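Reading a protein record of the kind used here takes little practice once its layout is understood. Each number in the token line that follows is a code from a learned vocabulary of backbone shapes. One such record is shown here in full, so that the layout can be seen directly:
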Amino acid sequence: MRFGLILSEVGQGFRRNLSMVVSVILVTFISLTFFGAAILLQLQIGQMKGYWYERAEVTIYMCVASSPEPNCAETAATQDEIDAVRDKLENGALAPYVQQVTFEDAEVAFQNFLDEFAGTSLVEIATVDMFGADFRVKLVDPAQSEVISDGVTGMPGVEEVRDQRALLQPIFDVMSAASYTAVGIAALMLVAAVLLISTTIRLSAFSRRRELAIMRLVGASNRFIETPFILEGVLAAVIGSLLASGAVIAIVQFFVHGYLAETITDYSFVGIQDALLVAPILVGVGALLAALSASVAIRRYLKA
């Protein structure tokens, strides 16, 4: 009987403040959609880092005659210098860190350049003397790329050592910044949702002030009086959270898998299982924030 009475009070609150309840639902929906998208983006960044870092190589560029680097002194690397670098990678102190070494001489590098930029004006001015030999080193542990860099930098004939991880990091930094921006927008929207819930609960309590006074006179406890108002806020927030969960799942299903995964087939993306893991988090965050804000609002109103 008491439970039925509480539910009827919740229904009355929804009817009397329908526009405010709809606002709470929409704001919660938008904010938690941003929040869920930010979580998925962080998961995607983690997957991409693992994928690309495993394939990242350290490239050792040997000197060419036109190189201005002090270690080259405008002199191309000799065969002995190239052999010394190769020996250190394959048989020397660096060998335990190296999984595979791929060597490309100047002629091959020049031909690859011609194939890649065929039909452009660059091909007309390029000469084989502009290209030097290089080693592409795949590591056993890509996180130990500094060992290779420190080991060969400064060796005779070495112009530059370039870690592909350093080239990828700015891309991941931009994606992380986008994720944090989404979290910031979601936080602002959640603050708006909390304020809306508090306002809705106060308006609902004010519209039923006579009923509340009667309930107090007949000995109803504060907990019994507060419960319908808290449930109003929680129910509105849960509806918005469920809509946000559906939106996140739809984004993964139709955009990530329906478009990105078919367009970019080189690596995997976050899946439905990840979205299904995020959905309970969104519902939990929405319900918790609503319960706290509604509880504080109604208690402050009853004490006033």
